[in-house]
Design a protein that fits this description.
Elements lengths: L1 E6 L4 E8 L3 E9 L12 H24 L11 H9 L2 H5 L9 E7 L3 H18 L3 E5 H7 L21 E6 L4 E6 L9 H4 E6 L5 H11 L6 H15 L26 H15 L9 H27 L3 E5 L6 H14 L3 E3 L11 H9 L22
Parallel strand pairs: 1-4, 4-5, 6-9, 9-10
Antiparallel strand pairs: 1-2, 2-3, 6-7, 7-8
Helix pairs in contact: 1-4, 5-12, 7-8, 7-9, 7-10, 8-10, 10-11
Bound molecules: 5'-O-[(R)-(carboxyoxy)(hydroxy)phosphoryl]adenosine and zinc ion.
5'-O-[(R)-(carboxyoxy)(hydroxy)phosphoryl]adenosine binds next to helix 7 and helix 8.
Length: 392
């Protein structure tokens, strides 16, 4: 089964074609993140406007690369059509008789920015209606987890990469969410989402990605803060003699002693602000470089995420541990999880390739394949506040 996935929840416009939930036939992502660099965070109106500009070219490209289907396949456009298609980009995809060789359309309905979500949702509904294809609404947070199902290169030559096994424990760490869930099966495999996916912990305030982004801004680094902090931290390790991360204890790891699977990252931002102000006013004896501060911030976030997750792995004893979301692209987080999971417990650790950690549409198509519940297009609505265990 070939599914066209469409994702527009934030500042990425993405479309992809995935065969049978695992084989990536195309993966197209356009991002407006460069337009938000100066503001230090996403401006929703700018993100939505860029979604409108990018959505049709991105879908066209995904169809062309993924199944060789081009807009002009079915029809020679008249000059009048050509003129109209430039006025109204959607008409390029729909103003002819042929339909692309896909079986269905999967669309992110939430959570996310309402303006951005609406662009994808309304485009997907229009295409489903015109092409007479089933449409599957997808939860963006659950879809992040499905980046772990996509076929990737196995370490052993000639062997297929492993498919995650249930029960699975999944940590989603993105720009707006930090959630730890237990999955007994695919969330809507049979008896409904509530039975198969259970929320066991998450952040009480800022998300992990948000903490990276806000702390980066305090250090004068650009958006998105995660990669910027990671690059500065890398410079610190390359320039200094420090090889042991254990010495990086400047910033707090709240809630670590509590018997739960919750996190709190807003105190980190306050502690970083205090330190930056003290350094500016020369109230501290020893001035720490931006690179070292970045390494300290990264270690505080990584340490909290890994140690609480290890505690949950020990309690729930899942067959797989699945890391996902934009923050899962962080090199130090991947490395520390691997070390701790290998050395402490024999769990199967899954993490997507870096390009599938951040927002993309292959995860959307894969999630729809394993949770295949098409809805009448009229019932599909954007839901900016959808939670990871929320009913669609
Ligand atoms: O999942 P995602 O692409 O979008 C959301 O659904 O929010 O996540 C974006 C977040 C941003 O906060 C960004 O700073 C963070 O992921 N991020 C990283 C890295 N790459 C992206 N955080 C730490 N290290 C990275 N290498
Ligand atoms: Zn995301």
């Amino acid at each position: 089964m070939k599914i066209l996935g469409i994702e527009t929840s934030c500042d990425e416009t993405a479309a992809a074609i995935v065969k049978d939930g695992r084989k990536i036939l195309s993966n197209i992502v356009a991002s407006s993140s460069d337009m938000h660099i100066k503001s230090g965070g996403i401006i929703p109106e700018i993100a939505a406007r860029q979604q409108v500009i990018s959505i049709i070219p991105v879908i066209e490209e995904a169809l062309k690369k993924g199944c060789g289907w081009e807009v002009r396949n079915g029809l020679k456009m008249s000059s009048e059509d050509e003129k109209n298609s430039q006025l109204n980009p959607t008409s390029k995809l729909i103003s002819h008789n042929s339909t692309p060789p896909i079986d269905s359309i999967a669309i992110t309905v939430g959570p996310g920015l309402i303006g951005s979500l609406l662009v994808g949702v309304e485009t997907a509904k229009t295409l489903a209606y015109l092409w007479k294809k089933p449409i599957i609404p997808v939860n963006h947070l659950v879809a992040h987890i499905y980046a772990n199902w996509l076929d990737k290169k196995s370490n052993v030559k000639g062997q297929k990469s492993k498919v995650p096994q249930f029960p699975a424990l999944a940590l989603v760490v993105s720009g707006g969410h930090t959630d730890l869930v237990l999955m007994k099966d695919h969330p809507s495999a049979s008896s409904g989402q509530a039975e198969n996916i259970k929320w066991i912990g998450g952040t009480r305030d800022d998300a992990a990605g948000e903490a990276f982004d806000k702390c980066a801004r305090l250090l004068g680094l650009h958006y998105p803060g995660g990669p910027a902090i990671s690059d500065e931290a890398e410079k610190f390790f390359n320039q200094s003699q420090v090889t042991n991360h254990k010495s990086l204890t400047l910033f707090p790891r709240p809630l670590m002693g509590e018997d739960n699977y919750d996190w709190s990252f807003s105190g980190l931002k306050t502690a970083v602000l205090r330190r930056v102000k003290e350094q500016e006013s020369k109230r501290v004896k020893e001035r720490i470089s931006i690179q070292q501060l970045a390494a300290e911030i990264q270690e505080a976030i990584v340490d909290s995420l890994v140690e609480k997750s290890i505690r949950a792995i020990k309690k729930y004893k899942p067959k797989s541990f699945l890391l996902s979301g934009g923050v899962a692209a962080n090199k130090r987080l991947r490395e520390k999880f691997l070390q701790r999971i290998k050395s402490e417990i024999l769990q199967v650790f899954h993490v997507p390739p870096v390009n599938l950690c951040t927002d993309n549409a292959v995860s959307i198509a894969s999630c729809a394949f394993y949770n295949y519940h098409p809805l009448d297009w009229r019932k599909i609505k954007a839901d900016p506040a959808l939670t990871i265990v929320g009913e669609i």
